[in-house]
């Protein structure tokens, strides 16, 4: 089934940051489903289903420059489309406004990586609720989030990497190479990982405090005590 992910986008050229929000994923329950996008309402609440759970729940943004009914996404013949449904402050696809105020636009095809903007910053206030929404659209990338040939092969290579290390060094910390030595949870495909030059592997989120600690760019491996220069030329 077609899937869509809306990721917050910060334009480096714009003077003020756009609305911050958590990435939103939708996998359509049926080919004819429509994802409605508008201002957040307490009545509808916000639903953030797991990326692989089919849902066409409406998407709500907590911004006053987003209209109650702003735009819609749907998929036809494998291609995602967007239209403005009569918003007052406009829907922009790669900086081009789709329709005049309060008028519905024609459908426009959306490609993976396109930037969609909802509304324009309200100049009267600095608060987040007056910011426009800018988002990068990811189309049909669900295959990357589940097991596939590429990420399974990469994961196996990583495990083999640390297996070789165990034989050579016989160090006990790396005998459980399928686990992160920091959180003790398993290391699996589709996770963000960090691999040190000594071939020890952790979840990026777990090792980050050590990476960016006071010793930066020197990194002391918590498993084998090897020191690496993270800024060394490759
Ligand atoms: Zn971990
Ligand atoms: Zn190490």
Automatic annotation (TrEMBL):
SMART domains: FHA, RING. Keywords: Cell cycle, Cytoplasm, Metal-binding, Transferase, Ubl conjugation pathway, Zinc, Zinc-finger. Residues 180-225 form the RING-type domain. Belongs to the DMA1 family. SUPFAM superfamilies: RING/U-box (SSF57850), SMAD/FHA domain (SSF49879). It catalyses: S-ubiquitinyl-[E2 ubiquitin-conjugating enzyme]-L-cysteine + [acceptor protein]-L-lysine = [E2 ubiquitin-conjugating enzyme]-L-cysteine + N(6)-ubiquitinyl-[acceptor protein]-L-lysine. Residues 35-98 form the FHA domain. It is found in: Cytoplasm. One of its GO terms (cellular component) is ubiquitin ligase complex. The keyword Transferase applies. This is RING-type E3 ubiquitin transferase.
């Amino acid at each position: 089934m077609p899937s869509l992910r809306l990721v917050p986008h910060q334009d480096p050229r714009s003077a003020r940051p756009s609305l911050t929000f958590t990435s939103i994923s939708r996998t359509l329950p049926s080919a004819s489903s429509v994802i409605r996008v508008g201002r957040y309402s307490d009545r509808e609440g916000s639903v953030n289903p797991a990326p692989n759970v089919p849902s066409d729940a409406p998407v709500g943004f907590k911004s006053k420059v987003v209209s109650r009914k702003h735009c819609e996404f749907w998929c036809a013949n494998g291609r995602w489309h967007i239209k403005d449904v009569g918003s007052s402050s406009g829907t922009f696809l790669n900086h081009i406004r789709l329709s005049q105020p309060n008028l519905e636009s024609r459908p426009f095809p959306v490609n993976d990586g396109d930037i969609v903007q909802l509304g324009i910053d309200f100049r009267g206030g600095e608060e987040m609720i007056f910011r426009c929404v800018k988002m990068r659209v990811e189309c049909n990338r669900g295959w990357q989030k589940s097991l596939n040939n590429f990420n399974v092969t990469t994961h196996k290579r990583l495990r083999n990497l640390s297996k070789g290390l165990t034989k050579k060094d016989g160090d006990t910390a790396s005998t459980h190479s399928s686990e992160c030595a920091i959180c003790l949870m398993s290391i699996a495909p589709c996770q963000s990982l960090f691999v040190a030059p000594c071939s020890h592997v952790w979840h990026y989120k777990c090792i980050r405090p050590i990476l960016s600690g006071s010793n930066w760019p020197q990194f002391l491996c918590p498993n084998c005590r090897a020191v690496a220069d993270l800024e060394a030329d490759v």
